[in-house]
Amino acid sequence: MTDINLPSDHGSLLRAARGLEPADLVLKGGLVVNVFTGETEAADLAVKDGLIVGLGRYDGLTVRDVSGLYLAPGLIETHLHLESALVAPGELAGILVPRGTTALVADPHEIANVLGLRGIRFLLDASAGLPLDFFFMAPSCVPATHLETSGAELEAEDLRTLLAEPRILGLAEVMNFPGVINGLPRVWDKLALFARRPIDGHSPGLNGPDLNAYLLPGIATEHETTTLAEGREKLARGLRLFIREGSQARNLADLLPLVNDHNYRRLSFCTDDRHLDDLLGEGHLDHVLRKAVRHGLPAMKAVTMATLNAAEAFGLRRRGALAPGWRADVVVFESLESFQVREVYKDGRLAARRGALTVPAPRIEPPDWISPMNVAVLDRAALDLPAAGARVRVIEAADAQVVTGHSILETPARNGRLVADPDRDLARLLVVERHRGTARVGQGLVRGFGFNQGAMASSVAHDSHNIVAAGMSLDEIILAVDTVRRLRGGLAVVAGERVLASLALPLAGLMSPAPAAEVAAGLARLEAAAVEIGCRLKAPFMCLSFLALPVIPRLKLTDRGLVDVDKFEFVRLFVE
Amino acid sequence: MTDINLPSDHGSLLRAARGLEPADLVLKGGLVVNVFTGETEAADLAVKDGLIVGLGRYDGLTVRDVSGLYLAPGLIETHLHLESALVAPGELAGILVPRGTTALVADPHEIANVLGLRGIRFLLDASAGLPLDFFFMAPSCVPATHLETSGAELEAEDLRTLLAEPRILGLAEVMNFPGVINGLPRVWDKLALFARRPIDGHSPGLNGPDLNAYLLPGIATEHETTTLAEGREKLARGLRLFIREGSQARNLADLLPLVNDHNYRRLSFCTDDRHLDDLLGEGHLDHVLRKAVRHGLPAMKAVTMATLNAAEAFGLRRRGALAPGWRADVVVFESLESFQVREVYKDGRLAARRGALTVPAPRIEPPDWISPMNVAVLDRAALDLPAAGARVRVIEAADAQVVTGHSILETPARNGRLVADPDRDLARLLVVERHRGTARVGQGLVRGFGFNQGAMASSVAHDSHNIVAAGMSLDEIILAVDTVRRLRGGLAVVAGERVLASLALPLAGLMSPAPAAEVAAGLARLEAAAVEIGCRLKAPFMCLSFLALPVIPRLKLTDRGLVDVDKFEFVRLFVE
Fold first, then answer.
1. Is the dihedral angle over the CA atoms B285, B291, B295, B296 positive or is it negative?
2. Exposed (0-12), middle (13-18) or buried (19+): which is A406, by Cβ within 10 Å?
3. Considering chain A, what percentage of its residues have pLDDT values greater than 70?
4. Statement: residue A363 has pLDDT above 90
5. Average model confidence (pLDDT) for chain A?
6. Are A10 and B188 in contact (CB < 8 Å)?
7. Res B296: pLDDT
8. Set of chain B residues whose Cβ sits within 8 Å of the Cβ of A18
9. ipTM given for this complex
10. How far apart are CA A411 and CA A395, in angstroms?
11. Counting one residue from A and one from B, how many pairs have CB atoms under 8 Å apart?
């Protein structure tokens, strides 16, 4: 799958290429988007045995008239945490393929934080045999920090076992930049292991001599760029940039002015984290292409970035262009403006038509180890904290932001005990360890959700994916956490003694095995329930899931306690 | 050498990159040619342990002021038959490195036709440890045809032994296009062996469905393009084009109009066959850059084509650009117009300055098997042919052309024996088998040299490199051949009983182990001697060496006889 093997019966392929016998399939009368020349070309495209055998005038056993339509190479996603879509690979393929995506490079670090190598191998298995090629990068930072409890730790020796997997391309986003530039052996052991493979970077804002040092091990790509100045420096230092347009981080409009005739070959697109509703609503890379062209990027450059450039960034040979001997992954667009997809061919076979797969995605049977939920029933008494100070640290949550604020406010208390305070929009926040049965619970306060009652909980809680819960009373929080526990992972909104809505995510507590439409409906019910308990955030679960991530400023909560991210150390909840 | 290994002491590298300790070397105050951005950038370039550790402001143990000069990546030759320069790899490095070339990809098929794998391994050994990285492609067509006797035959099983050589990159120019498109197993076995490696094409004039078929096995590059239309089609079908500007074939001016903003990434330069006098006089890729810019190609594109694009074509990582973590191969140009080279740094060390190597090239000791000269003393009586027909086929040689004409003329005879005829400029032509002691001699006539006396002989005789000789009498031809034989390979010009000039090429009969200046002087003496015997050709030995190549139209002579190349079959010398 990473490469093309010559078929043993090449005689028949050659005769088809030479027009001496009919091809399997001919797409006739379309305009071929030629990413080598930058021109569209009126030509029949002939396919046999999954390969393009020729462009020109051809006859085939099957001939499809694509007059007036554009044939482009299948789109390639360069960096995706597929767990963010909350569905299994087969369901994801059912969404992405009809949007024109025929290959993606995933960083499975969410599931790896829960299940380690077993989780990665589960995704490899679950994504095999689909009409979408799933490639993976070996996660470099599991756990993300030692300020939290993850389900697994992956050292270089663990990652070594992945080198032989044909769909493991390289090393995923190297977030630990201090580890890189300070020469930390645990980090450099991983870098050395992947020295001859693609290594993805992750260095928001890094510049100057520290950026130079970060690049020494051969880190080759970067998708965290947010400003033009940062993009210019990173391009100049040899990084290939993946312009990110996800659900949360949307850098496309800001970064498009970077692209010019000389450097466009060094740029591609990624979505990084893309939520189910956005995938179903806006789309995937088709949406990125539409938006890029609307913002002035020439369509030919946009398509080249999403295809050939992406393939080159990962050394994927004979993929990302339409040429003889190349893989027959073809998207039929209605125009190079709307990027509406009429049909998609994967390895030469019709895979999607007018928005739907034409082949059923195989349903997976989740193994019994897939959702560890090693957490005891919560002890209410132990969680009922005395108000041990006059003031308290509060995480300031802002809508659609992963960065939080860090405030110190007067402690909300009743009878000497810490409580939520609806008047000041202060909710209690818990992070409950779920991997190792430690019974560790981190406690804090969060402002900004707008709750007037109830609680919500989630087993999606970056990056260790413990259970994070916020709410107005301890009882409601406990009910929400218990609901997630009983679902073996998932999302829940409760009010009083009632579960208003819930969604099971039994695949590692991160994904559902259910059809995408069901999952989307469940998410809609959850969001309605959140509104019912007063929540004002547009993406409350997304917001909640990032409150536990101690690598993003400024104040975060893990199962081990409150983390002042600026200082990268634990701080006490109560002040004085 | 094909890749960069992380040094075990990366701590010191990192500190140098971060400016916390001095680099080994800093090139200060120059303008860096940034092939990623397409801009020149005022920056110090810091080097340590052979790698670039940073661009910016740096201090070093050694600091060189390069104010007002341009720092570019070392130039990369994409396709070269290095034997054509007639000198050993060390001497070649002494010419190319001061011209800015720091890596080359050679097709060693000349020596392979003489010595097979032993010859290739000799070049690998002789090119190791030089301040120029010699990469090789495994020759795909040894022998070129079965119409001649070569010193070796290389089948897929032989080439398999080369796969483990780190400096063997892929499969060299696949000249047997009928074999490819007809699915010939002997050819496809080789293609399959190199299916995951770069494969160079060689398909002059091939187009349409046959070109499509030729590309199916993954043939990825092409350097035989001579016209714009051919170049456009080949680019569109996914071939990377190496624009050739050699001694003989000079396609640069014709093909430059191909290059545009979108496709320039798919183009590089090669010289293919470059003679010693041209290398010493005009230069190598520096000459190509000068000429390209003079013909209107923007300098930034030209440099990018000669560096980053060439590296990408062969998957050479971290080479072809100046960036942190990339190989410190740096050319210091005086301008991006003259491309005069001031200094060259190879792996971070000064390697050449103002036209000369700063490190001595190691002298090689040729092994005793290096020049097989398995040829008996010629039997004059057997060579004295009866004039067995009234008319005779004549090879028409034209100056500076490898293509010959095919005439049928009245037989020049004396006493019933075939002779040369100075009045009609008809010389006798012999090809003497020298590899297997078969005593086979092919006989013919050639018109166009202009001899009035004497003979010349050469053990450089494409592609099998038997001994080819032309002259006005059998005795003089025999003396010339014997001279070459006694030299264990080489070139000779004789008149009467006197050897006017000769040059020993004891490395396979193709190259001299002597200093390049000596070889150049020897060649000058040979050319003067050729003039002395009346030769009017500007490049008589080049012309002579191609008279034995039965893959180039139209009439050629091998040790097995006259070949009508249009029909690809032997024909009789005498007609009727």
1. positive
2. middle
3. 99
4. no
5. 96
6. yes
7. 98
8. 181, 209-210, 212-213
9. 0.95
10. 13
11. 186
CA distance B72 to B27: 12
Q: Give the DSSP H or E segment for A351.
A: strand A349-353
- In this prediction, residue A8 carries a pLDDT of 66
> What span, in angstroms and rounded, lies between the C-alpha atoms of B232 and B252?
15
Closest to B165 in 3D by CA, of B212, B122, B200: B122
Contacts of A347 (CB under 8 A, 6+ apart): A50, A131, A327, A328, A329
DSSP string, B240-270: EEEEEB-SS-B-HHHHGGG--TTTGGGEEEE
| pLDDT over 80 (residue A389) | yes
How far, in Å, CA of B451 to CA of B453, rounded?
A: 5
pLDDT of residue A376: 82
Query: Residues A473, A508: contact at Cβ < 8 Å?
Result: no
Query: A51 to chain B, minimum CA–CA distance in Å?
Result: 9
The verdict on B51 touching A (C-beta cutoff 8 Å) is yes
Instruction: Tokens for B489, please give them.
Output: 């390979």
| Surface of A (509-548) touching B: CB under 8 A | none
Q: Given a cut of 90, is residue A248 above it in pLDDT?
A: no
Secondary structure class of A407 (helix, strand, coil): strand
Nearby residues of A298 by Cβ (< 8 Å), 6 or more positions away: none
| Amino acid making up residue A248 | Q
What does the H/E/C string look like for B38-62?
A: CEEEECEEEEECCEEEEEECCCEEE
CB B393 within 8 A of CB B405: no
| A366 and B CB contact within 8 Å | no
Is the CB of residue A6 less than 8 Å away from at least one CB of chain B? Answer: yes
Which has the closest alpha carbon to A141: A103, A175, A94?
A175
Cβ distance A215 to B10 less than 8 Å, yes or no, reads no
Rounded to whole angstroms, the Cα distance separating B261 from A115 reads: 47
pLDDT of A105 higher than 60: yes
What number of other Cβ atoms are within 10 A of residue A538's Cβ? 10
Contact B213 A181 (CB under 8 A): no
Which is nearest to B468 in space by CA: B498, B488, B441? Answer: B441
* Weakest mean pLDDT among A2-6, A126-130, B314-318, B466-470: A2-6
Amino acid identity at A17: A
- C-alpha A250/C-alpha A248 separation (Å) is 6
Which tokens hold the place of A244?
């990110």
Is the pTM value of this prediction over 0.90?
yes
Cβ of residue B232 closer than 8 Å to a chain A Cβ: yes
d(CA A136, CA B133): 33
Express each pLDDT in B388-446 by its tens digit: 999 999 999 998 788 999 999 999 999 999 999 999 999 999 999 999 999 999 999 99
> Is the Cβ–Cβ distance between B58 and B66 less than 8 Å?
no
Contact B237, B219 (CB under 8 A): no
Cβ–Cβ < 8 Å for A24, A191: no
Tell which residue, B327, B272, B321, has the closest CA to residue B2.
Answer: B327
Q: Say what the pLDDT of residue A430 is.
A: 98
Arithmetic mean of pLDDT, B378-389: 96
* Chain-chain contact of A14 with B182 (C-beta, under 8 angstroms): yes
Q: Are strands A133-138 and A101-106 parallel, antiparallel or unpaired?
A: parallel
Chain A window 10-29: which residues touch B at a Cβ cutoff of 8 Å?
10-11, 13-14, 17-19
CB proximity B323 to A under 8 Å: yes
- Rounded to whole angstroms, how far apart are CA atoms A335 and A71? 10
To test the contact with chain B by mutation, choose from A35, A53, A212 the residue with the greatest count of B C-beta atoms within 10 A, namely: A212
* Runs of H (alpha helix) within B328-386: 380-383
Instruction: Tell me the Cα Rg of chain B.
Output: 25
Give me the pLDDT at residue A415, please.
96
